[in-house]
């Protein structure tokens, strides 16, 4: 059993751990215990036998409920548990379930609950090898040969999601992911996204621009729609934030020509589907969780005040994101829409 992180991007970046476990234990099924909001991402991974959805409220200990759920897990006969969240409450579940081998990072001093304990002594590490390291002995160094995350979507899933969203299957699709669950500091300004949409449609009149995100991202996407009103891009921009399921969003990303995204879960979904990616970083470190698609650009001004890793700009100017204008992003995006497969993947600093 693998216990999932609570974030979509982290779940995607944890897939190489499952790839390594499957190679080590061929024929042994791997189940994942995940929050409902993250479960659809695991369901698109070929290594997963079954996704079990957690019934717990976010942030709540719910000790009695965890004990009851652990009794159900005990009956399934798991030999090992890999506990990816660093919290005490998630480490309780496999311990209460009597799973003999419980692997994870020390996190919240989880001695006893975790009995194969790894230590993260030199953070921040790139997240893909960070999770994949749990397949090795705790004292082993990080491996350089970690496989890349790879979700899978079918043609039928892509066609169904496009039809439900009202998107034409005969027109190129560009995806924008303007949200960020962490906080507003990670969001590229809506006006910049609107200006980029105008440039995309000016160069590719047949293009459709889909704004994807959760219901929480709807207001930000509404701002983008309002900003392009009265322009040639108005009829080409579709605000789908909160209007799709995560599974449908994954399918739409699977058929897109390219995606422009903040540092968010959908960025890593796109990378795992190997779609061309332009990733915009401000208060977070572009080297910590970079895009890993074959064609990708990471844009960061690398200001002296960054990465601050704050939910809101502590200096009030948000220069790390405002300073990346639509022209910079279009310069990175345009070759991807032209079919180039030679864009650098190591990012750049302006």
Automatic annotation (TrEMBL):
| InterPro entries on file | Glyco_trans_9 (IPR002201), LPS_LOS_Heptosyltrfase (IPR051199), RfaF (IPR011910)
Keyword annotations from UniProtKB, A to Z: Glycosyltransferase, Transferase
- The record's EC number reads 2.4.99.24
Point out the signal peptide segment.
none
Catalytic activity entry: an L-alpha-D-Hep-(1->5)-[alpha-Kdo-(2->4)]-alpha-Kdo-(2->6)-lipid A + ADP-L-glycero-beta-D-manno-heptose = an L-alpha-D-Hep-(1->3)-L-alpha-D-Hep-(1->5)-[alpha-Kdo-(2->4)]-alpha-Kdo-(2->6)-lipid A + ADP + H(+)
Question: From which domain of life does this come?
Answer: Bacteria
The cross-references to NCBIfam families, in alphabetical order and at most eight, read: heptsyl_trn_II
Into which family does the record put it?
Answer: Belongs to the glycosyltransferase 9 family.
Q: What is this protein called?
A: lipopolysaccharide heptosyltransferase II
Name the species this protein comes from: Pseudoduganella chitinolytica
Q: Which gene encodes it?
A: waaF
